[in-house]
């Protein structure tokens, strides 16, 4: 085959391979910008991961910050209060939804939970808190995990964490601090 024919076949083969790779692999991944005020679609259980911070304490209070992260799919929205139950370590208790408490929550000027968009660059958080001692000054049980269901999602995540509490409160999801 003449050299012109070989070059033509090689060029055609390279172009066909490039087209096939581009078609099979699809477009490159990209971050979807979030427009302020965009509510997004509600999150599904398969899209979310839940983790907990180490316990924080102040004047007999204990708190754990739950972080909700997007693990797959398009950006989605969480609004409201997560469902939180105590796990291993003591009697079963359910966290009462409250807008704010000693260790965090909504600002005093805000009563409606915000909608928080989860994306590859943004997370949501909710604070779970309680007292480490009961009304008589006796220590409360120490739990080693919490059972969490994100707002409007019917799936429980067992999240390892430690918190000493006789009663629990949970505050609504808010935009997670960047830091």
Q: Overall pLDDT, averaged?
A: 84
CATH architecture of the largest domain: Sandwich
Distance between the termini: 64 Å
| CATH C-level name of the largest domain | Mainly Beta
pLDDT < 50 stretches: 4-37
The geometry reads as globular
Largest sheet: 7 strands, mixed
Number of helices: 1
State the helical fraction.
10-25%
Q: Tally of extended strands? A: 15
SSE series: HEEEEEEEEEEEEEEE
Radius of gyration: 24 Å
Structural class: mainly beta
Sum this structure up briefly:
A hairpin with a 2-residue loop joins strand 3 and strand 4 (61-70).
Description:
- This protein is mainly beta.
- It folds into two domains: 1-30; 41-175, Immunoglobulin-like (Sandwich).
- The chain is 13% helix and 37% strand.
- The protein contains one helix and 15 strands, in the order αβββββββββββββββ.
- It has one helix spanning 3-25; strands spanning 41-42, 48-52, 56-58, 61-70, 76-79, 83-86, 96-97, 100-101, 104-105, 115-118, 124-131, 142-149, 157-164, 169-170, 174-175.
- The strands form four sheets. Strands 2, 3, 4, 7, 11, 14 and 15 form a seven-stranded mixed beta sheet that branches. Strands 1-5-10 form a three-stranded mixed beta sheet, with no helix packed on it. A three-stranded antiparallel beta sheet has the order 6-12-13, with no helix packed on it.
- It starts with a helix and ends with a strand.
- Residues 4-37 have low confidence and may be disordered.
Any key phrases for this structure?
179 residues; mainly beta; Immunoglobulin-like; 2 domains; seven-stranded mixed β-sheet; 1 helix
């Amino acid at each position: 085959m003449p050299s012109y024919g070989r070059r033509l076949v090689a060029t055609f083969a390279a172009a066909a391979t490039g087209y096939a790779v581009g078609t099979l692999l699809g477009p490159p991944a990209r971050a979807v910008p979030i427009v302020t005020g965009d509510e997004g679609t509600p999150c599904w259980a398969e899209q979310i991961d839940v983790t907990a911070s180490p316990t924080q304490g102040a004047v007999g209070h204990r708190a754990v910050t739950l972080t909700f992260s997007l693990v797959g799919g398009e950006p989605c929205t969480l609004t409201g209060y997560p469902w939180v139950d105590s796990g291993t370590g003591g009697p079963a208790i359910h966290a009462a939804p409250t807008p704010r408490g000693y260790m965090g929550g909504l600002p005093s000027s805000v009563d409606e939970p915000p909608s928080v968009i989860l994306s590859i660059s943004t997370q949501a958080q909710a604070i779970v808190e309680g007292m480490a001692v009961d009304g008589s000054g006796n220590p409360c049980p120490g739990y080693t995990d919490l059972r969490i269901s994100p707002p409007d999602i019917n799936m429980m995540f067992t999240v390892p964490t430690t918190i000493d509490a006789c009663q629990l409160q949970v505050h609504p999801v808010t935009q997670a601090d960047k830091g």
